[in-house]
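Why run this: before we spend reagent on co-expression, it is cheaper to look at a predicted model of the complex and decide which construct boundaries make sense. The entries below are exactly what would go into the expression plan.
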Amino acid sequence: MADRQRTRRRLPAALVGAALLLAGCFGGPAGDDVVTLDYWCWSQGQAEKVAAFNAAHPGIRVRHTDAGGGTDTATKLLTASRAGNAPDIACVEYPTVPAMVVSDVLRDIAPYTAEVTDAFSPEIWRMTRFEGEVYGVPQDIGPMVLLYHRARFEELGLAVPATWEEFAEVAEQVRERDPDSHLATFAPAEFGNFAGLAQQAGAAWWSVEDRRWTVGIDDGPTLRVAAYWQDLIDRDLVRPEPLLTPEWNARLNRGEVLTWPSALWAPGVIHGIAEGQAGDWAIAPLPHWEGEGPEVALQGGTALTVTKNSEHPREAAEFAMWMNTAPEAVELQIASGQYPACRSGQETAAHSPPPPLTGEQADYWEVAAFAADHTVPSISWGPNVSTAADAYNDAVSAAVRDGTPLPDALRDVHRTVLDDMTRVGFDVTD
Amino acid sequence: MTSTTPAADPAPPPRAPRRRATRAPFVLLAPALALFAAFVLIPIGYALFLSTQGLRIVDEGVFGIRDEVFVGLANYTQVLGDADFRAGFGRLALYGLIAVPLTLGLALLFALLLDNASSRARRFSRVAIFLPYAVPGVVASLMWGFMYLPSTSPFSHLTERLGLGGIPFLDGGAIYPSLANIAVWGGVGFNMIIIYTSLRGIPGELYDAARIDGCGEWRIAWRIKIPLVAPALVITGLFALIGTIQVYGEPTMLSPMTSEISQTWVPLMRIYRDGFVRDDLPLAAAGSVILAVGTLLVSLALLRVTQRRAFGGVR
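The model came back. Tokens follow.
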């Protein structure tokens, strides 16, 4: 008995010893002079990029973790930051960046990022740079485009709409020519999508100057866009239902969903659902309002941010810059299906093959580059975007369900966001 | 408690050293008390503390920074003043009115049938009825969700074939029975086992006596079995009630499939949203305290109403 107990006690010690020995042998230069950084990101192809970075930087070792999609990672990041153990670098979606700054999660890395200032356009910097303070290096962007089922368009003899006015006309033709199909879905819980459509029309949902905020979720352009979609819903020209449900996926596979006005990442999403339609789809510039320019908003996209918890902000910033500007990293990024935020990456993308879903489209990257070059210059997000998103999804879902007007739902969202900001103590005007 | 104390406590052995006798209970209780404090008292205390805090803007950084400050009862007034939070309790009540009686009724029915000597394939039936309880709630919700969605529902497929059109499981008021069905499906087996175990504990002489007096199986069930398993019914009823108040998983899983279920459909969903989507843990703490106090009051009320009938009758 006594002997067995002793060996039992010794075993863990022996294992630890062996592990240490192994680490000593194979850990390479994992000595004192190597900085270890933790990195959270959920997008595709990160492991390869991180491996490439580690290979190129013997003094820094980055450990990559996929902490879940945008919302999950943001939630975990807030919690971890309060506990003092946030990763050094984290992927954050652009709309969430101000909230992370206000929650004291992110560090200003302006002292380190001077060398990449010209690598990104000023419109892109707007997402992470506030009054000269830099809270992240842009990674990818999602300029909005119209993804359409080209084969079905040809079959029904439809023209690709260039304006929203034409979009409504084409929607009517679809209903006449194939009563089972709709031109598009109005998804009630797609805050980011509607925000993009409103921004394209000129909406400014949040703006800030000297910590004085203005909220405009019920501004003229927003209500105009809401009324436009309400009209399409009322006339049964678009189908109001949630996206990416088994229901919607089945409809898509039957070819009854003809377009998805969304962003450059959309072909990857549709390909995941309807692989059989590879080559049948194409992208076109997002329709614009008659008499207005072709500028579009960005839907989605992320930046690599450095946290206040990080003890090595210089190395963390170096990593964030390398990941988003180094030619090697950008090539891996494009291969994984992301559209790079940096100028050089967008040029590289122009020479790569289109995604499989739109594989037959010769001018895919030209359309993409055009959208990226024509983004609305004034997008800015607020400190409580998650509250807005949540209020939007509930209010618009209820409106669609109960048949109440969408503009009223947007007014409710505006009120909720305003009340929330007032309660928290922001200096905010209507 | 009403239990009578023994007429006379046995006197302590006269020569036992007094100190040891007084120390022993504390030593023996210490581990339990330490665990109770660490995992119940301190978390509750912290939740109460947190519910009086608020994240407010202080002048720092480019936009200002949210910092924890004392706000008194502001979180409580905010939560209680929210019509949607109160409406969540209404939705909960409607859901509970369907789910609880059905779960208990079916559990009792199955338990009585299994207990009946003339039933066949009892072991198989017991396992078959219990099996859904072993399916994780999230899996059950997803599975039922697919069976409700028009394009994947086998039920709607059948009714469409018959020319009756699909069944709108997820639209309008139908969402309540659809959700309750998931809870009933998963909960009946567990409750049945508790009631069945209680039934097996009834002495056989009672049945013999009843049969001699001319009772049929129906009357035995009604007059003997059900009154004697009343304590088990109260316990299962309490579990079902608390389970109803804490319902979260089923509506959360179904909410992406229907616009009928909002982010704040039931109180717990709202608490989750406040704490994690809106990053306002203090507000979530206040909501949790309100929900916990409500659960406690409802449970106490239920026990008070039923205790006399259920436990008093046995004596």
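The interface with chain B takes residues 71, 75, 78, 98-99, 101-104, 130-131, 133, 188-189, 208, 211, 242, 245-247, 250-251, 383-384, 386-387, 390, 393-394, 397-398, 400-401, 420, 423-426 of chain A (CB under 8 Å). Residues 142-298+364-429 of chain A form a domain with the D-Maltodextrin-Binding Protein; domain 2 fold (CATH 3.40.190.10). Bring this page to Monday's planning discussion.
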